[in-house]
Amino acid sequence: MGVKHGREYNDISQDLIQALGKIPDRYIFFEMEEEEWARLGDKDRLEVDEALAEDLFFALGSEKMISVGSGVVIHDQELHRLNILIGDDELDFVSLI
Length: 97
What we know:
Layout: H1 9-20, H2 34-39, H3 42-59, E1 65-68, E2 71-76, E3 81-86, E4 89-95
Antiparallel strand pairs: 1-2, 2-3, 3-4
Helix pairs in contact: 1-3
């Protein structure tokens, strides 16, 4: 189903990929080990990040918050954005409108 949005999905996806890149251990979401992540080249890491962004976009349509490694992604329906945090620190956000 995904989150409701007014912006083009591709633009949201690209912003989300960039924002998720700020979570250093995001690979844990796919149950990868740090060594596996370290062995991946840039192209393969981008593919993992694209899959992560897509999975989160659709899952956040029914879940308000999803853990991603040491971070969390929260769907703020009132402000129409996805917030990316580690602890209490906001790393970034992605506008949905």
